[in-house]
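Troubleshooting entry. Yesterday's outputs looked truncated, so today I'm pasting the complete records for two proteins to confirm everything comes through intact. If either block looks cut off, that's the bug. Protein one:
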Amino acid sequence: MESQNRKVDNMNIQRSKIKKERKEKCINTNILLLILTLACILWVFYFSFGGALGWVWNPINIFAIPYFGLHGTVQEAWGNLTLSNTFSDNSIAFISLVVIAALIGVQIVMLSLAITEVQNRWLKDFVFWLTNDRVIMRYFGFRMNNRININSYNESDVLNEAEENHWKKWKEYYKSDLSFDEWKRKYLKR
């Protein structure tokens, strides 16, 4: 009985250590995820606006816009905007700026969705792997079956002790001569 209690105490200590380690790993993972998210957000805006301004090679601006006769970057469109030009000359520059602004918005949304999907996949695979019971059990060197058996044995042992204490109090109160097994069969219907 005492050895079982020691085993259970050791299991509880190990569980508390596991919970503490899980919490620390999750905090570290959340910090890394926050840093990754901020870096990705900065990268998305740099790539989108850099492509529109001509700092970064952006395939959407380079291939799509000139194909329709529009300007590929903000500098090209802005350079063609002058007050001396007629409306038809300026309309291409205005349309180019509107299309570039729309493409910036579409790129931000699409890249943000892609990065969010990557982060969700990373969270599912890495964080759940990190806190998986199987991995933790391998780390502590015991099997789930042993843990379940010890827990179920401990729970039934605690239940038996409670029943026995109740039987003793019942026996004193009613001044009965029923044995524990007879009492269980008669009153607990086991």
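Protein two, checking that the full record survives here as well:
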Amino acid sequence: MMPEYGHALLCLALGVALLLSVYPLWGVARATRG
């Protein structure tokens, strides 16, 4: 596997993990505010 693909997959995995960790917190904050 070429390094570019590994780097892209690493960034993608980081983005998904960040989204999955931030999304529930954002939903709770939005629910409590509403």
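Both blocks look complete. Sanity check on protein two: Helices lie at 3-33.
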